[in-house]
Amino acid sequence: MESAVNKQLGFDPSTVKRLTALEILKRIGPGIILAGVVVGPGAITTAAMLGSSYGYHMLWLFIPIFIMSITFMLTCYRLAMLTGMPLLHGIRHYYGHGAAAFVGICLFFSCLFFTFGNISGSGAGMSLLFGVDWKIGALIMLALLLGLYFSKDTYSKIEKGVMVCILGMILAFYATLYASGGPDPQGFILGLTHWGFPEGSVLGSLAFLSTHASITAGIYGTYLGAEKKWKKQDLFNGTMLSDACAHVLTVILISGAIVTVGAIVLHPTGLTISSPVQMAGMLEPVLGSKARFVMGAALLGSAFSALMGNTQRGVVLLNAGLGWEVGLESRRVRWSCVACLLLGVIVCFAYSGSPTQLIFLANLATSIGTPTAGLFVTLMIWRKDVQAGLKPLRLLQLTMTLCYLFTTALTLYSFGARFL
């Protein structure tokens, strides 16, 4: 058995040395980029609305978010390393060109519509910070983004840029949390331990779950891992587990702060919000004149980091599904990103910058793409010929199956509640 494993992997897993904390920090990175993609303007809006509408009652959602997110990430990473192929390439290998193309196209449209909302969000952030027209602000940020796309060492620059944006978001929301006096300990603990849906909260909660725990992040992470030059040894030396944990904890750290701020500041007043920009005005009693700058920095950071990662994510997944180039510095990927951004500008300007309908379309596209991609990922993790001779991780297989069924059921319920 051991010789068969060594032959398929090219090394003996038992001899792989566990990396030190400093060595792991140098190896991780895709999970941070993916966190920047997840925490965009739509996620900020949903998180703030949950806190303002239901107080601490929906904090328990972060527990299934953690379980689902870590499961999706680890499953995708493991499959990519064992097969030696990123996920859509693996789907093509085991299930054919048609399956890979269909999944790639579905995931592309899901990402494309979120790009539209991110363009509006970046313009809104510039408007809050500098008082410029949101359209001018959006164009300035897109020009900066294009400079990053066409520079050398694209992956490294985007990784560093997303980290800066994430730090900005963390500082902004935790500064607000500190200024508001912090959460009520009893209410906070009850929100984590008492699970349930207050009246009218089901659809918003489902949207929150689907945004924060998406298998699309794990699939794209396998392509970012290739850009990071990950090797099969990284499956055994602690790199991939650490990267997955960094992704999930960063998302929870940011969104958890937003929900808590909404619960502390907005819920007692009975006020609700429909866009992240409105949150700046509602925070004025706590932060005064600094509210617009704090929210502007957070909104700009979330929108720009999501733009950097999400536009490329959609193009890479489309190209992977169709069997085209997927390198971030390839001409096809770069110019396809430009085309998506130009389309996004046209759509956003035509809709006067309102992301509401765009976010709805994104959720509709996700309702098609996520269950489809998740089906093939679930099937692959159960295949004996994928395990490279290793003993299957039954807990991961079972958890992946349950999370997929749960996510699909929530998607179907949400879709039916909207249209039936």
Give the SSE map.
Layout: H1 2-9, H2 21-27, H3 30-38, H4 41-54, H5 62-83, H6 87-95, H7 97-130, H8 134-149, H9 154-179, H10 185-193, H11 202-212, H12 215-227, H13 239-266, H14 276-282, H15 284-287, H16 291-322, H17 331-350, H18 356-381, H19 394-419
Helix pairs in contact: 3-9, 3-12, 3-13, 3-16, 4-11, 4-13, 5-12, 5-13, 5-19, 6-7, 7-8, 7-16, 7-17, 7-18, 8-17, 9-13, 9-16, 11-19, 14-16, 16-17, 18-19
Brief summary:
Its main location: membrane. The protein is mainly α and 420 residues long.
Notes on the protein architecture:
This protein is an all-alpha fold and about 425 residues long. The chain has a single domain, classed as Sodium/glucose cotransporter (Up-down Bundle), CATH 1.20.1730. Helix content is about 75%, strand content about 0%. It has 19 helices and no strands. It is globular. The termini are far apart. The model has no long low-confidence stretch (mean pLDDT about 85).
Q: Please give the CATH class.
A: Mainly Alpha
How many runs of DSSP E, i.e. beta strands?
A: 0
The second-level CATH architecture is Up-down Bundle
Tell me the series of helices and strands, N- to C-terminal: HHHHHHHHHHHHHHHHHHH
What's the domain count? 1
Structural classification: mainly alpha
Distance between the termini: 54 Å
Main location: membrane
Organism: Acidaminococcus fermentans (strain ATCC 25085 / DSM 20731 / CCUG 9996 / CIP 106432 / VR4)
Keywords: Membrane, Transmembrane, Transmembrane helix, Transport
Membrane topology: Multi-pass membrane protein
